[in-house]
Amino acid sequence: MEERDFDVKLLPELLEERRFVEARSVLSEMNPIDIAIALGEVPEESLLKLFRILPKEIAADVFVEMDSDEQELLIKGFSDAELQAVIREMYVDDAVDLIEEMPAIVVNRILRHTDPATRKEINELLKYPEDSAGSVMTTEYMSLKSSMTVEDAFERIRKTGDEKEDIYTCYVMDPNRKLQGIVSVRELLLSDRNQLIGDLMETNVISVTTLADQETAAKLFDKYNLTALPVTDTEDRLVGIITVDDAIDVIQEENTEDIEKMAALLPQDETYFETTVLQHARNRLPWLFILMFSSIMTGLIIEHYEVAFQTMPLLVALMPMLMDTGGNCGTQASTLMIRGLALDQIRLSDYVKALGKELRVALLVGTCLSIVNGVRVYIQYHDVKLAFVIGSTLLFVVMVAKCLGCTLPMLAKKLKLDPAIMASPLMTTLVDVSAVFIYFQIATAVLL
Amino acid sequence: MEERDFDVKLLPELLEERRFVEARSVLSEMNPIDIAIALGEVPEESLLKLFRILPKEIAADVFVEMDSDEQELLIKGFSDAELQAVIREMYVDDAVDLIEEMPAIVVNRILRHTDPATRKEINELLKYPEDSAGSVMTTEYMSLKSSMTVEDAFERIRKTGDEKEDIYTCYVMDPNRKLQGIVSVRELLLSDRNQLIGDLMETNVISVTTLADQETAAKLFDKYNLTALPVTDTEDRLVGIITVDDAIDVIQEENTEDIEKMAALLPQDETYFETTVLQHARNRLPWLFILMFSSIMTGLIIEHYEVAFQTMPLLVALMPMLMDTGGNCGTQASTLMIRGLALDQIRLSDYVKALGKELRVALLVGTCLSIVNGVRVYIQYHDVKLAFVIGSTLLFVVMVAKCLGCTLPMLAKKLKLDPAIMASPLMTTLVDVSAVFIYFQIATAVLL
User: Fold this and answer.
1) Is pLDDT larger for residue A34 or for residue B26?
2) Residue-wise pLDDT tens digits, B407-432
3) Tens digit of pLDDT for each residue in B346-403?
4) Spatial separation of the C-alpha atoms in residues A341 and A262, rounded to whole Å
5) Residues with Cβ < 8 Å from A9, sequence gap 6 or more?
6) How high is the pLDDT of residue A8?
7) B340 vs A423: CB contact, 8 Å cut-off?
């Protein structure tokens, strides 16, 4: 880390002093991803110069890892030959990602300098819907025929492997490109050279279709410990593969999306700083308005009990504790449900079992909180009736909150909505209504 | 999916009717992971019988994927020979995972039936602290010498590859086991058979030490698109590798942990149903007590303004909306910060930049909410002063909430705490205090 920081600061200086050989040797020692990060920190005017001194064999790798702003800057500075060289070295799925980020004029220039075959593949990939398996796959996989021997397979890998994104899983197809089976390079290495691929291949293949959700694909990696996953069309023909590094990106993306939804945000693809202020406001306002409406409801219930708190103003001061604790209890339960559902550890059919568990937890947690708070109120205000009201309200509120927290994510799932929306903010607001209602019902009955 | 359900229901029946050959053929068509899931659903008394008809070559793979309850049940039913066979087929890291889950008496039996060399390795691995890189690594990696040719390397892989968990990255070590470089099987396959490993290997190797946090290791997979990561001791000697499937598990585990912390839960390793009611209560109570205390503070501030809401009871009914909206705004900001920090998209040095952005977003969001709510209050209560109080309070509260939401996770990071604790529940409770204070200050000044 420290070494890298040193390099970054050094680079523009080396450039200024025209010590290109040194700069090049510093860069060639570094990992392409670290170079991309380092280039993100140099002044814009040095960027193209530095990129040009990169060893040719890693230039494209570095380019792929850079932020889209810098990619755009570079492309605008590239000669036609440079642009062609970079695109030729890129994997098709990376080219697609690049094109999706660039403005139309840059896209045109990129496509003009792409060879026709690749251009056709790019255009095919661009057609898949966002977040589908098709949109994250690559078309550069290793294909074999079942009639080949292990020796033939190695020969083919040696000849064509260089341009494939993953070579460790090979796909066996029939003449109609239907996927017959897969065979790993591990299997090939450990087998006799004369064995037939058809005899070695695993025919029970886990795959997804192009239109499957990318999350479904990523979950298969997690479940079956895959390193690559074949993607087929509706007629079972192999059209591409998803590699494990892209699956990890999808997993992180989906986690971020869930976390954002759980915080009453509309999810976004860009990072925090890439998102404009206006877009941030747009992502935040919808849920704020919805939740505001529901807390206005709470207010209306409170209005209804005006007499109660005019007679006994202390009731108002004790309200936030009841509402907050209820909200927190609901949040805890709903979060466990949401995460359990997301990881397939909890299923819809487990609802009764989960509810039973939550009720028992609520009883335990609620009793603890009630006793502590009842005693606290008694010591502070010397009013045993008030202590009873607070204690029993708290127990009820915790029970209701845990039930809601358990039920609502399940209900959302049942209704084919994302359970993640049933998280903290919605829970807090919904539990508020019940808390206020229970509180004033008990208070008016006991105290007035 | 449907096919699998069919199999599961069928299996005990086939067993009852002693149709073992059929049962075996159904099972041998299935993926070991699916078999493990299916076996989790059969009655306990059929479990051992079904396990015994599994084809030998997949029995250990299935065993590794089963829940610890079922593993324990099986081990108790195994003959010594069966136990030895399963353990012999297991990778050392899986054996360690198994031992960590089993009661002492079962552990003793397992270790008694493990060969001395493996037992030594297991004991070494058991010493690494929980959640360290050492605790998730495996010691079964492919090692090469720099003096070997590509041909020699293939020969070695062919001989010893069968028992290695990952063979696609090979590790080149000097006689003192110091890691000199790595070479991929891809590189080997695409190179001339007579080339020296020493000339082919990449010497700029990304690695972690055994005591590094497993999260640090998992992040390296994500950042550098790795499929395996070498783990070294403090003297740079290679002691193991982490494979990508384990890295994905760590990523999911760390995400779950963050999400649980964000919901005021103490994180737990077990799944929802594996955790007992008592343990659930223990995980939930600490934060509930802490947050309860802070909402009692809010109550004390409210008590201070008793005169205000006795004069104008309506003020109480409008309180939940202000508190909830403030809490939600704070939650949105803090969640974006927490996630950005976790993914290294936001750094501590970005604080001023982030705060500036949040303030601008808050101004925009706050203005929208204020206007809508001011108008709403005016229409509902025909009180222009009250509408002004609500509108201006809301704007202030949103500004304060966004500032807190931006600042607290950064502050936690600075203090080497986990930013995830600064999420929704804490934010809600903290913002409440400020909301109530701002509200009554403005209300008393304007209305009374």
Assistant:
1) A34
2) 999 999 999 999 998 887 888 888 99
3) 999 999 999 999 999 999 999 999 999 999 999 999 999 999 999 999 999 999 999 9
4) 14
5) none
6) 61
7) no
Phi first, then psi: give them for residue B143, nearest 5 degrees: -110, 145
User: CA angle at residue A338 from A337 to A339, to 5 degrees?
Assistant: 95
Query: With an 8 Å Cβ cutoff, are A321 and B306 in contact?
Result: no
Best mutation site among B25, B297, B321, B353 for testing chain A: the one with the most A CBs within 10 Å?
A: B321
User: What is the 8-class DSSP label of residue B166?
Assistant: E
The dihedral through the CA atoms of A209, A214, A219, A220 has a sign that is positive
**H/E segment holding residue A48:** helix A44-52
**DSSP secondary structure of A2-15:** HHHHHHHHHHHHHH
Q: What is the ipTM of this complex?
A: 0.84
**A319 near B CB under 8 A:** yes
Which tens digit of pLDDT belongs to each residue from B121-155?
888 888 899 889 999 999 889 999 999 999 999 99
Please judge whether B339 and A259 are an interchain contact, meaning their C-beta atoms are less than 8 angstroms apart. Answer: yes
Q: For chain A, give me the number of helices (H) and strands (E)? A: 22, 6
Is B204–A30 a contact, with Cβ atoms under 8 angstroms apart? Answer: yes
State the DSSP code for B129. P
Interface check A431 vs B, CB under 8 A: no
Rg (CA), chain B: 30
Beta strand pairing call for B238-243 and A238-243: unpaired
Place of tokens 């991929």: B184
Number of CB atoms found within 10 A of residue B70's CB: 18
Is the per-residue pLDDT at A80 higher than 70?
A: yes
Backbone angles phi, psi at A306, to 5 degrees: -50, -45
Is the C-alpha dihedral spanning B352, B357, B361, B363 positive or negative? positive
The residue type of A366 is G
**Which pLDDT belongs to residue A5?**
45
- The whole-chain average pLDDT of chain B stands at 90
- How many whole angstroms separate alpha carbon A11 and alpha carbon A37? 13
3-state secondary structure of A196: strand
In this complex, is the C-beta atom of B216 within 8 Å of any C-beta atom belonging to chain A?
Answer: no
B41-62 burial: b if 16+ Cβ within 10 Å, else e: ebeeeebebbbebbeeebbbbb
Residue with tokens 């202000």: B322
> Could you tell me the end-to-end alpha-carbon distance of chain A, in angstroms, rounded to an integer?
67
Q: Is B350 exposed, middle or buried (0-12, 13-18, 19+ CB in 10 A)?
A: middle
Residue B350: list chain A partners with CB under 8 A.
Answer: 273
